Amino acid sequence: MGNKRSKNEVKRQQILAAAVSLFTEQGYAAASMDLIAKNADVSKQTVYSHFGSKDELFSASIEYKCESLQILELSLHDFSDPQTVLLKLAQSFIEFIMSKEACAVHKICVFESTTYPQVSEIFYKAGPLRIINEVTLLMAKLHQQKILAIENPRYAASQFLNMMKGELWMQIEFNIKERISAEEVDEYLRNSVAFFIRGYAIK
What is the rounded CA–CA span in Å between residue 102 and residue 105? Predict the structure, then answer.
């Protein structure tokens, strides 16, 4: 039984890896379930047995990418050191939005939103909204443990994530070739985290 389960998990991972690659390289419309099955080296029936529809597979692919970068792996952190926790979160978040896959999916949502309006909604729920919800829980923990004074964790989560994007995200959105350096990004993140902590410091 365990062997069967492990084989199913291997196939699921193969399908997700193939789907992420095809969705980001060819877009939502061109990445057919047949092609995904072929690239994953499984049957089309196997793809549908794991994911009931193309929309479901697209959503799972985004979640898979989020999990692979461990953006939300915050449960083991010592919250008494908010600078370390929040800086790690900021760095992981920036790594995610800078990734080839995230940039490609962002473009897909922009270009295909008229023809496939569900694509943007799927992406938002599986990616951005999921991250906001998890960061909201983190902000609530920081407040509950009296480390920071965060009366509205949802607002704080949105403020934090949007602040971290900074100039880099604008350059990514407009596809600017010359972007701020890694050193400048790191300095900006550290400065922004410190600014955020000062803003929510317990008086």
Answer: 5
So what's the pLDDT on residue 104? 84
Residue type, 182: A
Amino acid at 120: S
Of 164, 47, 30, residue with least CA distance to 104: 30
Q: Which CATH entry fits the domain spanning 2-62: 3.40.50.1220, 3.40.50.720, 1.10.10.60, 3.10.50.30?
A: 1.10.10.60
Taking a C-beta distance cutoff of 8 angstroms, is the pair 66, 131 a contact? yes
Residue with tokens 């934090």: 160
Which CATH code, of 3.40.1260.20, 1.10.357.10, 3.10.20.310, 3.50.50.60, is assigned to 69-199? 1.10.357.10
User: What are the φ and ψ backbone dihedral angles of 90, each rounded to 5 degrees?
Assistant: -60, -45
From CA 103, how far away is CA 24, in angstroms rounded? 8
Burial of 172 by CB count in 10 Å (0-12 exposed, 13-18 middle, 19+ buried)?
middle
- Read off the tokens for 141: 């923990």
How far is the C-alpha of 126 from the C-alpha of 16, rounded, in Å?
A: 14
Instruction: Quick: pLDDT tens for 131-163.
Output: 899 899 999 999 999 999 999 999 999 999 999
